[in-house]
Design brief:
It is a single chain. By secondary structure, the chain is an alpha/beta fold. It is built from 13 helices and 15 strands. It is 42% helix and 19% strand. An eight-stranded parallel beta sheet has the order 8-7-6-5-4-3-10-9. Strands 11-12-13-14-15 form a five-stranded mixed beta sheet, with helices on both faces. A hairpin with a 2-residue loop joins strand 13 (323-328) and strand 14. The longest helix has 17 residues, at 218-234. The radius of gyration is 23 Å and the shape is elongated. The protein starts with 18 loop residues before the first strand and ends in a 5-residue tail after the last helix. Bound molecules: iron/sulfur cluster. Residues 271-356 form the IspG C-terminal domain.
Length: 367
């Protein structure tokens, strides 16, 4: 016994109310779900459905579509009817689109009740329609669109300002007896976002949607999101997530899934263990790892594949993985379940790994 602290394998989740976004439970111990938003013109039904199909294949659980115009609102029934995953309508100002979204069968609506109250106080009618249709509502507070009153009070979008805004917006629905709410407080700075979500988790029992908003380009944004989400999720805070990187929604979904898989909150599918490279490299490892990842994109079985650049760590990692290749001298030594199964020229490594993957996943696992 080394006296080391025991780290729980998967985080214990914070107890929250549970709501259902279509058939996806959110909060109350349900698995953490991954969301993204379509980037198509919502009114272009075919393009939107095509993108929804792509993100679904990448592992998205819930899709949000922006509804800024009447044409978009009119497209919702067709989108909802054919979408394989629940659709949330994202509406900022126009209550009439909220009613259209509920009538269209959307599984959820994201609104900013502060805006609705200010311009056209129909919050009570929205609460009634949403309750009748069992449609949950997401309250979204972003640093960039914080209520002017709270901005003036707090001086900047501090964690306290974001939380006060979110709880005030919730109270506008609570006044009408509506509590089927999910909250997102987002900031581009992970530390502010973490602090805001911790405060919120202490202050209410609504499920929380996590997002580092406007997180940036793929590498920076994924890291900012992963850092913030991991800290919160390790404390059991967070019921759905979106990785808001400036990249295709499929990449956002993949990043979200990797974060959940890394935390043991979602079963792993494909994992590539590839070496970073060093002066001992005997192959273009960056290119090869990318080729292997692309070749196995969508592979239906969970596999760990080691792609290693030389014989120092190559055989060891390859033996530990389900499949592996250890490169050197223009060749790749292919491993399957710990055994060397063949050696192929470098140009045939990807094909050989695919071959072995099929053999492994089709064969019974043990005699
Ligand atoms: Fe360097 Fe070899 Fe390790 Fe890759 S496996 S990082 S090439 S020592």
């Amino acid at each position: 016994d080394l006296g080391l602290p025991t780290i729980p394998k998967t985080p214990v989740r914070r107890p929250t109310r549970q709501l259902h976004v279509g058939d996806v439970p959110v909060g109350g111990g349900a698995p953490v779900s991954v969301q993204t938003m379509t980037t198509t013109n919502t009114a272009d039904v075919d393009a939107t459905l095509q993108q929804i199909a792509q993100v679904t294949a990448a592992g998205c659980d819930i899709i949000r579509v922006a509804v800024p115009s009447a044409d978009d609102a009119e497209a919702l029934p067709k989108i909802v009817a054919k979408s394989p995953i629940p659709v949330i309508a994202d509406i900022h100002f126009q209550p009439r689109y909220v009613f259209a979204a509920i009538d269209a069968g959307c599984a959820g609506v994201r609104v900013n009740p502060g805006n609705i109250k200010r311009f056209d106080d129909r919050v009570g009618e929205i609460a009634k329609a949403a309750a009748a249709a069992h449609v949950p509502i997401r309250i979204g507070v972003n640093a960039g669109s914080l209520d002017q009153r709270l901005l003036a009070k707090h001086g900047s979008p501090t964690p306290e300002a974001l939380v006060e805004s979110a709880l005030w917006e919730c109270s506008l629905f609570e006044e009408h007896g509506f509590r089927d709410l999910k909250i997102a407080v987002k900031h581009h700075d992970p530390l502010t976002m973490i602090a805001a979500n911790r405060l919120l988790a202490d202050a209410c029992d609504y499920p929380l949607h996590l997002g580092v908003t406007e997180a940036g380009t793929a590498v920076q944004g994924s890291i900012k999101s992963a850092t913030a989400f991991a800290i919160l999720l390790a404390d059991g805070i967070g019921d759905t997530i979106r990785v808001s990187i400036s990249d295709h929604p499929v990449q956002q979904v993949k990043a979200g899934n990797h974060i959940l898989q890394s935390l043991g909150l979602r079963p792993r599918k494909l994992e590539i263990v590839s070496c970073p490279g060093c002066g001992r490299l005997q192959v273009d490892i960056h290119k090869l790892a990318g080729q292997v990842e692309a070749a196995f994109d969508g592979f239906p079985h969970p596999l760990r594949i080691a792609v290693m650049g030389c014989v120092v760590n190559g055989p060891g990692e390859s033996r530990e993985a389900d499949l592996g290749v250890s490169c050197g001298n223009g060749k790749g030594q292919i491993f399957a379940r710990g055994q060397v199964v063949r050696t192929v020229p470098e140009s045939q490594v990807v094909e050989a790994l695919l071959d072995e993957a099929l053999r492994l996943t089709e064969a019974p696992t043990s005699p």
